[in-house]
Amino acid sequence: MTAGQEEREDDRLHVSPGPYDPATAVEPDRDIPSYTDPVARDFSTALGGPVGAHALVGFQRFFTPLRLILLVAVLFLALGWTTKAGCLQQKSENGELVLDWSGSRPYVSMCYSDTVPLYSAERLNEGLMPYKTQFTDTDATGAPQERYMEYPVLTGMYQYASMRIAKAWTYLHEQWGVPAAIEVVLFFTVSALGLAMFWLLAIWATTRSSGAGRRPWDVMIMAASPLVIVHAFTNFDAIAVAATAVGMLLWARRRPGWAGVVLGLGTAAKLYPVFILVVLLFLCLRAGRLRPWVTASAAAAAAWLAVNLPVAVMWPQGWWEFFHRNSIRAVDMDSIYAVVSSFTGGWVFGGEGPRGGASPLANGITFVLFLFVIAGVAYLALKAPRRPRVAQLAFLIVAGFLLVNKVWSPQYSLWLVPLAVLAIPHTRILLAWMTIDALVWVPRMMYFLGMQNKGLPEQAFTVTVLLRDIAVIGLCALVIRQIYRPEEDLVRSTFPGPYSPPLDDPAGGVLDGAPDSESLPGPLRSRSAQRGRYQTNTASSAARPHTPIQTPH
Question: Cα–Cα distance between 322 and 317 in angstroms, integer?
Fold first, then answer.
């Protein structure tokens, strides 16, 4: 190659193939966290600063936001595994391997998980079919009682399936010599792997729902949540969390029938997914779109019956155990009632200790207060100046249920994580709440350890519960504020641009962009709806024109 040819080749390599076009550099309406999120902006400084103005955003073939978020989720799930590993230690006793929980290991190591004691407490170690076999246990006073599996059917059958896999692995060990451990460790391992898959499914669905795909990075705080490290494997709640997230995604995709099916299955695992249908009822009533809600509700009822009816018919007493146990369950030490009792020096609901005793008064107060929560959500849905987003009301009703319920098991906080991400995607605020909530686990374990073992006193624990409740109430207040000031809602104000109106509800499905119904009675309509306000300012997120993002230089 001659000198002239080399010079021309060098010029060709350094000349842009064409003028810069922002439409080809940035995917329309994609959120850029390193510019819009303070936490991401500060973190990006360690990696070279915010994304460049000429970067190709949204066109990656492999390292997509979803795959990176799932990768981070796997890392945090692995950390969650390590927090429980201390309770899987084994020791030899009389020539047999047994679980080593000596020296109050679950509390000192803070590795406690319900999964381990439930293996024997629910008689899974005996290979019994849940709901079919009655067994004798003792109540809080030490008196014998006859009982069955106390979990909802789908969760109970998940435990049964995990037990059968663990026993099958033990059989392979005995027959073929494959490596194995004691059965309860195998049971925990199988259960945890399944729960990890459910959590990843919830992250996938939440990412797809987040701003209709325009704000995928919001879900990073769900993947990297401190609550995942502490509670991903504390119990089986990831099943219902995944069902709720997928059900909301299907609703956002305008598939109310399938959304109902998944929410019905979630309700067969835990009660709270049915609250999403309550929220949708109020919003569909305001929009005059009741047919999709009826379709979703009918499908949910059919799915729930398909799971529960066979068990209820074959073993009615065992099936009823879940409802019976909840009605007689004492006030939980993580509830606001135990906090009040702790600081007033008396147990409001009878009994002794932070859990109090089983009391009709506790059930009645919880029920009445939750009715007030539902009424408040209904008021916001119908009377707010602009129709709230589905995720906003879903977060409020689930958070309200937890705050007024007599039981708030620590892993229940996982219920709020995907709803909070969709409702209020403020990373710093959510990270602060999740950290406070996760740290409640430390004084809880130290309180269980007992003062005689250098544990913490009761009020050292209840103070942290109160701080967690205050944090959740603060989140609820922020959601309500943004309902009444939609211009402060990050999801609705995502890149409106000069030629496109603000978003309505990207996860609203048939509600997205729908005007308020004029057939509602006057007392049920908001004043803004009566004046026609927001009717022309609301556009469907799917149909509105796209404007390329002009990233700053």
Answer: 10
422 and 210 in contact (C-beta within 8 Å)?
yes
Provide the token pair at 302: 């059919």
Cα separation, 516 vs 535, in Å, equals 7
**Spans of the chain, pLDDT less than 70:** 1-62, 139-142, 211-213, 345-359, 494-502, 527-553
The residue to which tokens 């890392």 are assigned: 75
Measure the CA–CA gap between 159 and 157, rounded to whole angstroms: 5
Strand positions, DSSP E, 122-180: 135-138, 144-147
pLDDT in tens, 441-483: 999 999 998 888 888 888 889 999 999 999 999 999 999 999 9
**Are the beta carbons of 300 and 263 closer than 8 angstroms?**
yes
Q: What is the pLDDT of residue 248?
A: 96
539 DSSP 8-state letter? B
| 3-class SS string, 368-437 | HHHHHHHHHHHHHHHHCCCCCCHHHHHHHHHHHHHHHCCCCCHHHHHHHHHHHHHHCCCHHHHHHHHHHH
Q: Which pair of tokens denotes residue 529? A: 């709806």
The closest alpha carbon to 520, from 284, 279, 280, 276, belongs to 284
pLDDT per position as a tens digit, 358-379: 567 788 889 999 999 999 999 9
User: Are 121 and 466 a contacting pair, CB within 8 Å?
Assistant: no
CA 162 to chain centre: 22
3-state secondary structure 439-475: HCHHHHHHHHHCHHHCCCCHHHHHHHHHHHHHHHHHH
User: Buried (b) or exposed (e) across 157-168, using 16+ Cβ within 10 A?
Assistant: bbbbebbebbbe
pLDDT of residue 500: 45
Over 36-87, what HEC string results? HCHHHHHHHHHHCCCCCCCCCECCCCCCCHHHHHHHHHHHHHHHHHHHHHHH
Question: Can you tell me which residue has the tokens 């809602």?
Answer: 489
Q: Are 123 and 133 in contact (CB under 8 A)?
A: yes
Residue spans per domain, the chain: 19-59, 65-85+182-530
pLDDT at 42: 59
- The tokens 């945090």 sit on which residue? 76
Contact 132, 302 (CB under 8 A): no
Q: Residue 252: what pLDDT? A: 94
CA-based Rg of the chain, rounded to a whole angstrom? 26
Nearest to 517 by CA among 290, 211, 222: 290
Instruction: Give the pLDDT confidence score for residue 112 in this predicted structure.
Output: 94
CA distances from 527 to 304, 380, 382, 517, 521 (A): 38, 12, 10, 13, 12
Q: In angstroms, how far is CA 337 from the centroid of its own chain? A: 24
Residue 394 pLDDT: 97
* DSSP tally for the chain: helices H, then strands E: 24, 4
Compute the distance between CA of residue 370 and CA of residue 407 in angstroms, rounded to an integer: 13
pTM score, two decimals?
0.86
